[in-house]
Amino acid sequence: MTTSPAPLLGYPRSDGRVGIRDVVAVVYLVECARAVADAIAAGRDDVHVIGFGGCYPSAYAHRMLEQLCTHPNVGAVVLVSLGCEGLDREALARTVAASGRPVTTLVIQALGGTRSTVARGRAWVEATRARAARGRMVPFDLADLVVGTICGGSDGTSGITANPVVGRVFDRLVAAGGTAVFEETGELIGCEQHMAGRAVTADLGAQIVGRVEKAAAYYTAMGHGSFSPGNAEGGLTTLEEKSLGAYSKSGSGPIHGVVTPGQPIPGPGLYLLDVVPEGPPRWGFPNINDNAEIAELVAAGSHVVLFTTGRGSVVGSAVSPVVKICANPETYRRMSEDMDVDAGRILEGREGIDDVADEVLDLLHAVAAGRPTASEELGHREFVLTYKSSEPTGPACLPTLR
Amino acid sequence: MTGTAPTPAAGGPYDLLLLAAGDDVAVAVRDLAAGPCRTSDGRVLRTSGPVRLGHKVAVRDIAAGEHVVRSGMSIGSATVPVSAGEWVHTHNLRSDYIVTFAHRGGEA
């Protein structure tokens, strides 16, 4: 790993983690509260809107919001409730308060409607920000961070430039004691035996094979795999070919464990995030788009996400910065304002995978020090969280006395 | 995926990138017209038609039913005999896992 040009300073949290951003999360607890949440956050780059649209409770969504509200990049939390939704706002508020973060719960039905709730929320955010500005910062190292990776809008170049670059970055981060997480068991179909060979224990290897088999069964039941028309136009022919490209993001080092969405990464090393739910398909695709997956990587604790794209994506994320690594030189020329790294130059023979990996590590350092990524600068703060699991429930979407 | 891909910069300039030694296909690093092309391992291969950037070309004759290897890992099976220099895509290669679903898959 490249040596730090300057010491990094971050935001200390009570669980020992350090944030590289200090975001106020404004959390809508049902779609009905979303416009109010948006109005509370409007006009501030450091106030991000996340939330869950469903009225009926979901243990998965609750776990995700708990992890996101206590994410190291989050310094304070505003919960915006309509008042009658099923999500247990009191339990969520308790979890956030227990983490030492300032938290307030605004119940629109109790506060008299849109304007009064927005005014209360904005005043709380102003006061909280003023206090946060006086907080101390602590030194940290890149190895203290969790780095996630995802590929979106893949083409035939993704698997030969940007993805191997991320793999090289991961190898170096993990070798230096850092933590890295890759995802999408459904995008790893065909690579399971190779992955099992990299697992630190035979049990973990068997578990990985089982999880990929589960993903294959899930996608087969859904009618097709994680493969879009754009993938085929870009030169990818089969799901396993796309998998091979996606798989190269994981590098070549040992795999230390598997986590599921809403579960934090337990320690340093390389982890696989299994995004495919257990059991038969019930809620459609495991993740409906790239941002649903990014949200899961962030909830796992990712301070920053390396997003590789061949055909060109513009998205960022709430809570954690997204670094976009463009695999295709033609896409880079066309969409450079949305890209952070031009990995397509590998394809043109101008530089090697290690050269670009060096650049990504330097950029990670700069982003950890506070430099905005292209998507941050452009105001991308996408966030998607949908139903993924379900549990038996009564008529929850009714006025209650709690 | 076995072994590491050769660092492309070391071999360039070339038209077709071979990702691992022993691979059955190489990847076009730019849009290619039909005709002689240089591979990253120093061979000359005659492509039988135009090939777009990121698409694959067979570097040897492949029999129907044979696994096709890229980066040292199988990416599916040939559905028909494929000659060296031929474009390899959904018209002659299928997944061994899940049928490729693509509205416009296979277009040139």
The total domain count of chain A is 2
Query: How does the overall form of chain A come out from the CA principal axes?
Result: globular
Query: Quick one: CATH class of chain B?
Result: Mainly Beta
Distance between the amino and carboxyl termini of chain A: 52 Å
Secondary structure category of chain A: alpha/beta
The description of the largest β-sheet of chain B is: 4 strands, antiparallel
Q: Whole-number radius of gyration of chain A?
A: 21 Å
Strand order of the largest sheet of chain A: 10-11-9-8-12-13-14
Q: If you compute it from the alpha carbons, what radius of gyration of chain B comes out, rounded to the nearest whole angstrom? A: 13 Å
Enumerate the spans of chain B where pLDDT stays under 50 for 5 or more consecutive residues.
1-11, 100-108
The tally of domains of chain B stands at 1
Reading the helices and strands of chain B in chain order gives: HEEEEEEEEE
The level of helicity of chain A is 25-40%
The chain pair forming the largest interface, with residue counts per chain, is:
A-B, 47 and 46 residues
Low-confidence stretches of chain A: none
Q: Per CATH, which architecture of chain B?
A: Roll
- What percent of residues of chain B are in strands? 25-35%
The succession of helices and strands of chain A, N to C, reads EEEHEHEHEHHEEHEHHHHEEHEEHEHH
Q: Spatial order of the strands in the main sheet of chain B?
A: 1-2-5-8
Tally of helical runs of chain A = 14
Mean pLDDT of chain A: 91
Describe the structure.
Chain A starts with 7 loop residues before the first strand and ends in a 25-residue tail after the last helix. Helices cover 36% and strands 16% of the residues of chain A. Chain A has 402 residues and is an alpha/beta fold. Chain B is mostly beta strands and 108 residues long. Chain B is 4% helix and 29% strand. In chain B, the strands form 3 sheets. In chain B, strands 1-2-5-8 form a 4-stranded antiparallel beta sheet, with no helix packed on it. In chain B, a hairpin with a 2-residue loop joins strand 6 and strand 7. The termini of chain B are far apart. The N terminus and C terminus of chain B are likely disordered. At the A-B interface, helix 8, helix 9, helix 10 and helix 13 of A face helix 1, strand 7 and strand 9 of B.
